[in-house]
UniProtKB/TrEMBL annotation, chain A:
Stored InterPro entries: MetI-like (IPR000515), MetI-like_sf (IPR035906)
Entries under PROSITE patterns matching the protein: ABC_TM1 (PS50928)
Record's bilayer topology term: Multi-pass membrane protein
Pfam families: BPD_transp_1
Recorded superkingdom: Bacteria
Annotated protein name in UniProt: ABC transporter permease
Keywords: Cell membrane, Membrane, Transmembrane, Transmembrane helix, Transport
The family this protein is said to belong to: Belongs to the binding-protein-dependent transport system permease family. CysTW subfamily.
Main localization of the protein described in the UniProt heading: membrane
From TrEMBL, chain B:
Similarity annotation: Belongs to the binding-protein-dependent transport system permease family.
Positions of transmembrane segments: 12-31, 37-57, 64-80, 125-150, 194-213, 225-247, 259-282, 308-334, 354-379
Species in which this protein is naturally found: Pseudooceanicola antarcticus
Stated name of the protein: ABC transporter permease
InterPro entries the UniProt entry points to: MetI-like, MetI-like_sf
């Protein structure tokens, strides 16, 4: 294998130093092992770990407010809610354009729903205001059309906004990017429009509104910008700009029309947007609503987690939720309590059976083992349906009790759709997970210890309690953690036999994901549950070791 | 270790013990015929008399006496209430005949140390009764479901016709419903379409990875193992929620592929655990020997390693299969109506319009489980034999 020379390192057959040769062989071995593992590792990372990470991300993600109302949240940043005054005009102006495009993209109701989790009533506020946004622009358009018919025409507007000279491509790109954020879709294609720098400087709000319109028309609807009539928001922008802009010196296309409009605008009653919103709904002057928007305008929030523990993030800091909305702490406590009750019932029922199995001759024990393994292998739904059938008021157990005269026919026991039903059914379902680890530990306890204790004068009880029981504690620990971990995350059985009082936190998670659609809160509740399970699992690993997980 | 020699006990003692049981069963017989109290007293009296007589006069002819019990009880039961009485009589006759002589001959003490006090003997049997009751608790739900699935009525309880073994009370209509109802057949078809593909994915990737993990030098072995096992540890509702979020992001939510991938991920830990357990006892010199004789790694794998670990691979596959076949939480979220599997259909049935067809499906599933359980057990024994361990 190797040559040993008098001086110098040991060499392998091919002349390389033995140390290096060995290291290389080892490295190759490691690489081979990793190559064998990597397909599965990638598979699990993509199909399982990524979803879990996504869920954790969603529990803090809060981009909806800043993505739907990007300008508003930016302008609102300087506003101080503690003064007790609603924000000033610029905020309402920003809100108008943000809300307009959001309403066109039908995203404003989603935002309303999102903010409604934090402040009740916001949902209807957004929905009703979204319907009224067009009216203001329509009124202005009517007035402008009296001066010049062409104000309502797409081609006229396109010429006006395109202007002459250099164009501002960046502005359109920025608006396209903002629209992408709003809709969450990847938008591609050519807008076919860019405002001239001159007009962008002269009529900034009009240009911004028109750019929104152009981007949406071209990229989402797929129409030609010049052929479509502009949005009502553009007229609002124009009216706002005309209040201050000096259009007399402008000489681009349609300059005359613009100047005539500017003159006419003197005679048109301009409604500040703050007034407009206040008329749409009094609530827009509500400081609390604005404070809520401000609080949730950051990209990430601890709000969902706070909700999950019955707190809420308010503009004034973290506060407890109103009494009637505090349910999650209670649910967590109930989940814990019921899981503990199930664990203890499993210990109480599993210990004697495991003891019997461990102390019977192997042939008999194997036979009885089938009785333990059969339910273990039977479909969860089969066992749950069996319990539903047995525990019903018209079910087998009640029938037997009535037949024996122990229970009156009129007063049949309510054993289902409550905590009792859940605990019984889940104890039955999880009992094998207690018996199997207990059995394997008890098998390793020599029966002679018990006999030795007795021959030294211990009573049956002392011998059991002082000698046998302490040795079986590892089995109890392993079984308990296993049962507890499984119980705490159970969904199906509580859903079917739990009714309203016997449900777990997992049922609430499912509710938030499929019914209330408050995904963030569902994710936060899930993240807390996951943390508890991982902590318990870590303890399980310390006590038992992952490698000792056995099946059947 | 039969240290204790069976010492015959007195006839009165044997008859007394039997009478206690007689009183207990008398309660049920009495309730069925009208008077619970009469049944209790009557049962005790009849059994006491019979047992005393048998233990006193027929002590020598145990076999004949026990047959006597059976004949007497069966005939009595039949005259009393027809076929159900006959069945009950047969059971009671066998039991009381055995009990009388078990106690009378003193055989009940053979499993106990000779110095046991009467209280210890009582505790010994009381304990076994308790453990027995718990085992009954474990098995009863399954036992109740099976006969109820043959119910001729749409009830979830035993009808009087069923209890009197009237053929009218039984029917296969729920099974017929299962095999003709398009909802159930669609669900079955979906389960059959999803589970095998998920199993193949899990077994394919899982076996390779398990072999990799069993190499002597694997960097980050603990971390990798933790990741691969995690689908088994994370509560299903959390996996389901995460997959729902993530798969709807990448367009897999509500597709066949999405459900298959999710189920494969859930089945992988089982494959990893069973196959690595098989590989623990694998003798690596066998592969070296194969290589030494000129086999390339692929040939070595398929001709030497694979046949030896095959039992582990198959039982891992069965675990993965049953995981997918039984799984309902994840498919509820990741799947859409087009992927409605059998457990999903059962779940809907249990939550909304509970129909007895569920019991027929449950019975079929129990039979499938028994088949799979037997297969896994046989495979485990075969694997241990192949690897030179004694089957335990």
């Amino acid at each position: 294998m190797s040559d040993t020379t008098q001086n110098g390192p040991m060499l392998a057959a091919d002349g390389t130093p033995l140390k290096r040769s060995l290291a290389r062989a080892l490295r190759r071995q490691k690489m081979r092992a990793l190559m064998l593992i990597s397909p599965l590792l990638i598979f699990v990372l993509v199909t399982f770990i990524a979803p879990i990470a996504d869920m954790l991300f969603r529990s803090v993600e809060n981009q909806m407010v800043s993505e739907t109302l990007p300008t508003t949240t930016q302008v609102l940043g300087e506003w101080d809610h503690s003064a007790g005054e609603p924000p000033a005009e610029p905020v309402y102006e920003a809100l108008y354009y943000d809300l307009f495009i959001a309403a066109e993209a039908k995203e404003h109701t989603k935002l309303g729903t999102r903010l409604n989790y934090e402040y009740t009533g916001v949902s209807s506020l957004f929905r009703s205001t979204g319907r009224g946004l067009d009216d203001l622009g329509d009124d202005y358009l009517d007035e402008l059309e009296e001066v010049d018919d062409r104000w309502g025409e797409g081609a006229f507007w396109y010429d006006l906004m395109t202007g002459t000279g250099s164009t501002d491509e960046d502005l359109v790109a920025a608006h396209a990017k903002r629209l992408e954020q709003l809709t969450g879709d990847k938008l591609s294609g050519d807008v076919g429009f860019a405002p001239s720098t001159e007009i962008a400087a002269l009529l900034p709000k009009t240009t911004a509104a028109y750019a929104d319109f152009a981007v949406y028309t071209a990229l989402v609807d797929g129409d030609v910008v010049a052929e479509e009539d502009p949005w009502e928001s553009v007229y609002v922008g124009l009216m706002t700009d005309l209040q201050t802009a000096d259009v007399a010196s402008y000489s681009g296309p349609e300059a005359e029309a613009l100047q005539t409009a500017a003159e006419a605008a003197q005679g048109i009653e301009y409604i500040p947007l703050k007034t407009f919103f206040a008329e749409e709904d009094e609530d827009w002057l509500n400081v609390d609503i604005w404070a809520t928007v401000q609080t949730y305008s950051s990209k990430y929030t601890s709000g969902y987690f706070l909700n999950a523990v019955d707190l809420q993030l308010t503009p004034d800091g973290i506060e407890a939720r109103p009494e009637n909305q505090q349910i999650y702490i209670m649910l967590f406590k109930r989940t814990m309590f019921m899981s503990l009750a199930i664990t203890f019932s499993c210990i109480a029922l599993g210990y004697p059976v495991a003891w019997l199995l461990a102390n019977l001759p192997a042939s008999k024990a194997n036979l009885l083992m089938i009785l333990v393994l059969l339910p273990f292998w039977t479909s969860l739904l089969v066992r749950t349906s069996a319990w539903k059938v047995m525990l019903q008021q018209q079910g087998v157990i009640n029938d037997v009790l009535v037949w024996l005269g122990l229970v009156d026919d009129a007063a049949r026991l309510v054993m289902i759709n409550n905590q009792f039903g859940t605990i019984v059914a889940m104890t039955h379902i999880l009992l094998p997970f207690m018996i199997l680890p207990l059995y394997s530990v008890m098998q390793g306890i020599p029966p002679s210890y018990l006999r030795a204790a007795k021959s030294l004068g211990a009573t049956n009880w002392t011998a059991f309690w002082r000698v046998y029981f302490p040795q079986s504690v590892p089995g109890i620990g392993a079984g308990s953690i296993l049962v507890f971990i499984l119980a705490i995350g159970y969904y199906i059985t509580p859903e079917i036999v739990g009714g309203t009082t016997g449900t777990f936190i997992s049922n609430r998670i499912a509710y938030h994901i499929s019914s209330s659609l408050n995904w963030g809160l569902g994710a936060a509740l899930g993240a807390i549950l996951l943390a508890v399970v991982l902590l318990l699992y870590w303890a399980y690993d310390k006590i038992v070791g992952i490698d000792n997980v056995k099946l059947g | 270790m039969a240290l204790t020699i069976a010492k015959p006990t007195s006839a009165v003692f044997a008859a007394g013990v039997a009478a206690l049981f007689g009183a207990f069963f008398g309660i049920f017989v009495g309730t069925a015929t009208g008077s619970t109290l009469l049944g209790l007293v009557g049962g005790a009296a009849v059994i006491f008399a019979l047992s005393w007589a048998a233990a006193t006069f027929l002590r020598g002819q145990e076999k004949a006496a026990r047959w006597g019990f059976i004949v007497l009880f069966t005939a009595g039961g039949f005259l009393f209430s027809g076929v159900p009485g006959l069945v009950l009589g047969l059971i009671f006759g066998t039991f009381f005949g055995w009990l009388t002589f078990y106690v009378a001959s003193g055989r009940y003490r053979t499993g106990l140390p000779p110095y046991s006090t009467p209280r210890q003997v009582l505790w010994h049997f009381a304990f076994r009764t308790i453990a027995g009751l718990i085992l009954v608790f474990l098995i009863t739900p399954i036992l109740v479901v099976m006969p109820l699935s043959f119910n001729a009525e749409d009830f979830f309880t035993f009808t009087p016709e069923m209890l009197s073994f009237d053929p009218e009370g039984y029917s296969l209509k729920h099974y017929r419903d299962f095999f003709t109802n398009s909802d159930w057949q669609g669900a079955l078809w979906n389960s059959v379409r999803i589970a095998p593909v998920a199993t193949i994915l899990a077994v394919g990737f899982g076996t390779l990875a398990a072999i990799g993990l069993s190499q002597p030098h694997v960097p980050f072995r603990q971390a990798i193992m933790a990741i691969l096992i995690s689908p088994m540890i994370v509560p299903l509702i959390i996996s389901a929620a995460g997959m729902y979020f993530f798969y709807s992001r990448i367009g897999l939510q509500g597709t066949y592929l999405g459900v298959v991938l999710a189920h494969a991920a859930l089945g992988i830990p089982f494959v990893i655990i069973t196959v690595t357990a098989t590989l623990v006892g694998f003798d690596n010199s066998l592969t070296r020997a194969a290589a030494n004789m000129g086999a390339d790694p692929v040939t070595t794998f398929f001709r030497v390693q694979m046949p030896l670990i095959l039992p582990g691979v198959i039982s891992g596959g069965l675990f993965a299969f049953i995981t997918s076949f039984d799984e309902v939480v994840v498919v509820l979220f990741v799947g859409s109506a087009g992927q409605k599997t059998l457990p999903w259909q059962m779940f809907i049935g249990l939550r909304e319009q509970i129909s007895p067809t569920i019991l027929a499906v449950a019975t079929i599933l129990v039979i499938i489980s028994i088949g799979l359980l037997t297969t896994v057990e046989l495979l485990r024994r075969r694997s241990e034999r192949l690897r030179g361990m004694s089957p335990s």
